[in-house]
Amino acid sequence: MSRSSLAGAAALLAAPLLVIVAALITTTFSDDAADQVTAFNAHHGAMVAGSVLQGVSIVLLIAGVAWLAVALAPRARGLAIAGGVLAVLGSLPVVYDDGVHAAVAGVASGLGAAQATATIDHILSSTGVKTVEPFALLGDLGLALLGIAAARAGAPRWTAAAIAIGAFGEGAGFATGTKPLVIVAFALLFVALAAVVRRLVAPASAAAEAAHLESQVA
Question: pTM of the entire structure?
């Protein structure tokens, strides 16, 4: 298996783990401005660390999803391409949202509580934020399609359902600010994606081993 493939598989599996860690250390997922200010003032380090980890995780997810789509394309081309494109496009609003929350952290730290609350409320209720948020559903749909593609490519059938449930579950968890749901959903995604990666990596490893043995015999 090539280094690029190993890097893609590693990125795909690292992404949900980082989100789980971020969720565990982040004190609130609420979009309420007052809750955000209170959390950043009381647990500034944890909130900033959680935001950074989420930012890193989405970059890894984009890389991992791109690898997965390419790896599945020879056996389920249509679903793999559609799933990959939608998953990447749906990740872009998340990148935007991470940037917004980075700005929120700065506002919460640099202003008084009342002024910070008013400013953050204005940011979070802005047209830009409200417009891009629904497009994150494309990412969930893309992951679900990649799960179906993986099952058609030979991964265990349960992985398709698990990836879809995990994808839409984490979306619902973030939308409602429900930390346990986010953690459970990403844990389910990790388990299912690990099974898919194992299925994709095993034939490549076997082929490499066979080629190595043939070279020794020759």
Answer: 0.82
